Amino acid sequence: MDTNHNKKIGLFQLIMLGLGSLIGSGWLFGAWEASKIAGPASIISWVIGGIIIGTIAYNYIELGTMFPQSGGMSKYAQYTHGSLLGFIASWANWISLITLIPIESVAAVQYMSSWPWSWANWTQNFISNDSITTAGLLVVFAFIVIFTLLNYWSVALLTNFTSVISIFKIGVPILTIFMLTLSGFHPANYGTNLHEFMPYGTAPIFAATTVSGIIFSFNAFQTVINMGSEIENPKRNIGRGIAYSLIISGILYILLQSTFITSLNPAMIAKNGWHGINFSSPFADLAILLGIHWLSVLLYMDAFVSPFGTGVSFVASSSRTLAAMVSNNHIPKFVGKINQQYGTPRIAMVVNAILSMLMVSIFRSWGTLASVISTSTLIAYLTGPVTAVSLREMAPEFTRPFRAKLLKYMAPLSFILASLATYWAMWPTTVEVILVILLGLPFYFYYEWQHGFNKTKRAFKGSFWMIGYLIFISIMSYIGSKEFNGQNWIHYPLDFVFIIVGSLLFFYWGTVSSVMTKYFKQAQRVNAKVKK
């Protein structure tokens, strides 16, 4: 019907929704965090991060166009490997999404805490030792409530809001690049030799990719996929929406990193080194140092707007992910109920809001939240390449509006890159996130017990490779090189070789572990509706 068509999300709105998710607190803090870790070579970290997420997204474009459904990323793994792998993948993905809602609020509150005006003294107790205080926590809770309410009524309200806000979010970083470059351009900060360019060696370039929030900054491409059936002409628009939003944000992030490096006073670097650069509100502080006070005011304002747009987008994405998990029969059915009038999963939104508040009460700093998000997302993403390759064997007859020509090479490559990036999160973060993911298993086993453990053995057969992989990556994180916080039993860069070889073995094991279950029949039904 026409009315229904009008509610669908067009390509421009989809790109704006993607950019609204991608350009959040990552640009406000990522360049500073990466510079502290890797110095000028941090610009390479952004290129590596973009390549990793780009190769992962390549697999998901084929999957997203084959199964254009809301919360799709929660379902692909169960189609090919049964309920247990589907549960692990969707739970890991959901953990990252509900952590994304509070991290955007924390970013806004951290910028608020350094407001330089006398009337704003009351905001200065929001942050203490890089952590949110109780007073700051209440403001974070208020943001989470507002993000949720903006999604509560309709998809139309969400897309109109994010399209407007995304234009502002792109404009301010571009203006920042232009003004900071005009006011203080020191290309010599890149150094005149390799040692000055890489003051701490090559390992921190890789570490910065995960630890400083670069992977987190690119992660949001899945917002496009999770909107699924709400997208107008998904066959054409899913791939384009992901590609355009990733390319635009990637160029912007690299330019911002370069601007941050070249805008710093060389005397500050000479005195403190890159490790010693300490800002509360990085780009706003830089603008004040360079005497551009009006820009600092705009940046303080954008510290509200950028996280706001991303927070709103991820309330939409995370609620659809949780609602989609209900069809896996391991979450109470009422959680996934869609409101008939507005077409939104309202109960899922409320559950996510409460859990987001709980998450930020435990992990109170931007850096910790960014590490949790990056690692849990990467673990969820590992199933995508395996699923895409498995479906080529299981269902060659399925309609594939986008057929990834390079899948044979890109699938194992993206699996390897995701494994390396998980390792770069450093010990003990890797293991901590794996434990958080495993906390969901009691839900799985409770519902399996209710169904009389029907076909649970087959579900295990499809998931042993992932369980083995999680043990492998945990052990590698512990025994790996000191550069990544390990015991240094395996030295850098030999640790990378072990992970690459191990990942290829687990990837192959995953592709031969597919199982035919009732969920594959669901996949057939969804794919049958796709136009060639």
Automatic annotation (TrEMBL):
One CC-aspect GO term: membrane
Main location (coarse class): membrane
Cell compartment(s), UniProt: Membrane
Keyword vocabulary terms for this entry: Membrane, Transmembrane, Transmembrane helix
GO MF annotations in UniProt: transmembrane transporter activity
Transmembrane regions listed in the UniProt entry: 12-31, 43-61, 82-112, 132-152, 164-185, 197-221, 242-263, 283-301, 347-366, 372-394, 406-425, 431-447, 459-480, 492-512
InterPro entries: AA/rel_permease1, AA_Transporter_AGT
Domain of life assignment: Bacteria
Membrane topology: Multi-pass membrane protein
Gene3D superfamilies named in the record: Amino acid/polyamine transporter I
Name this polypeptide is given: APC family permease
Annotated source species: Leuconostoc gasicomitatum
Lineage start: Bacteria, Bacillati, Bacillota, Bacilli, Lactobacillales
